[in-house]
Amino acid sequence: MSQPVAHRRRARPAVDGERLLRRVEELGNIGRDAVTGGITREGFSRADREARTYLMEQSRSAGLAPSVDAAGNITVRSRPLGTGPARPAVLMGSHLDTVVNGGRLDGAYGVLAALEVVQVCAESGIDGEFEPVAVAFSNEEGALFPQPFFGSSVLAGRLADLPREPLDHEGRPLRGPLALAGGDLDALGTAVWSADSLAAYLELHVEQGPVLERAENRIGVVDGITGRTVLTVEISGSAGHAGTTPMPGRRDALAAAARAILAVEHIAKTLRLCRVATVGRLDIHPNSPNTIADTVRLTVDLRDTVAVRMEEAEAVLRHDLEDLSRRTGTVIEVVARTYSGPVSTSANLRGLIEESCLELGAPYQSLPSGAGHDALVVADITPTAMIFVPSVGGVSHVPHEDTDPVDLILGAEVLLRTALKVARIRAH
Ligand code: HGY
Ligand code: MN
Ligand code: MN
Fold it and tell me: CB-based contacts of 286: which residues, under 8 Å, 6+ apart?
């Protein structure tokens, strides 16, 4: 079979490292706290919208065609959808939103590397069997609106998993902020991709852990991605005067929440029912020093690479919460739940990533991802793989999250070469 023209004559395209690093630094200034240096761009916040505008502007000035779907996902193609032959996409990307006071690379690096690959392919006139497309998924972290993987869930058709009217931690509706980002809550169905519109999904991401740095490897070929269950638990008691309300008979929601937090830790740390369990957010009402709290909402994050262990850990926790409710006289309810089962990545795609590493002489290893990613969800509908680059000190979700610039460029080069290999063959 003759090679598509693009692969017959042209010199091998390469990423423009300077351009990539410039964009990483420019984007890293959006939502940055002047004191801590941390970045806060919660999904659908004003800072998130600023980052979206940056990506759209960079895409347009590169002569590319960005567009926003009903879920607020931004996709970037070499030409507008519908112009030119319809081809399955080699989708590459990650997310622009961050946790509170996080780093500049988590998500953003993968989006900008994907933009770089689409731009290089457009500049090189590459026209393979599949179309390279970059994506910035909306609200991956779920930091403000606790529906993590929101944009990728819509793309993958997991609409039934999403609440009809998503609310943020304070009970404010998503509808308005989604519209401000260019989305439309009533049209999410138009943002679902069919499996045959995709050839593969590749996500480049900082490792966010210590494995690559300790092993002195520069590329991680992710073999599995942890499953993740996120619960919002509401504890309701009775408010009262801290000075005049006797201890017996109190229905102190915050005291009950303290026991619930320790129960969550106990499940992973002592009982080892799942790999990790975390309570990361607490919303207390009325949150006043001399008033007994009447309502507390807390988030529970359970993870494991084995689905049945996550289910067991959740069942034990629910039982513990029922018992705690009886013992404290409070009402304890799980008011929201998102679940993403653990996935294995595509063996074929892993092979193409390894080939790219060998071509580049980049020492690599396979490893699981303890962090959740949009790839966890997109794997529902297409062969999916992840490429990691080392995190300095193995840390992330903190202001000093960092990766050696040489590794940032190398990771993007591996992404480009892998995407070109997929563009030549179907990744099944
Ligand atoms: O929480 C995670 O694993 C990812 O950062 N969303
Ligand atoms: Mn993250
Ligand atoms: Mn991430």
Answer: 239, 293, 294
Any atom of ligand 1 within 6 Å of the Cβ of 374: no
- Decide if pLDDT at 231 tops 70: yes
Work out the burial of residue 146: count CB atoms within 10 Å of its CB; fewer than 13 is exposed, 13-18 middle, 19 or more buried.
buried
Token duo for residue 75: 């996709």
| Nearest-angstrom CA–CA distance, 185 and 231 | 22
CA gap 37, 17 in Å, rounded: 24
Containing 208, the helix (H) or strand (E) segment is none
Reported as a pLDDT band with limits 50, 70 and 90, residue 126 is confident
Q: Is residue 371 in contact with ligand 1, taking CB distance under 6 Å?
A: yes
In the chain, where does the domain assigned CATH 3.40.630.10 lie? 10-225+344-422
Q: For residue 99, how far is its CA from the centre of ligand 2 (angstroms)?
A: 6
- Indicate the CATH number for domain 10-225+344-422: 3.40.630.10
**Euclidean distance between CA atoms 400 and 392, whole angstroms:** 9
* E runs forming strands in 188-345: 198-206, 219-225, 227-236, 240-241, 276-285, 291-292, 295-304, 331-340, 343-344
228-340: CATH topology is: Alpha-Beta Plaits (3.30.70)
Taking only the tens place, the pLDDT of each residue in 318-331 is: 999 999 999 999 99
Taking Cα atoms as reference points, which of 261, 318, 309 lies closest to residue 284?
A: 261
What average pLDDT score do residues 310-316 get? 97
Cα–Cα distance for residue pair 185/242, rounded to 1 Å: 43
pLDDT band at 53 (very low <50, low <70, confident <90, very high): very high
| 49 CA → ligand 2 middle, Å | 18
Over residues 137-158, the pLDDT tens digits come to 999 999 999 999 999 999 999 9
Considering the entire predicted model, what is its pTM? 0.91
Residues of the chain with CATH 3.30.70.360: 228-340
How many A from CA of 183 to the centre of ligand 1?
23
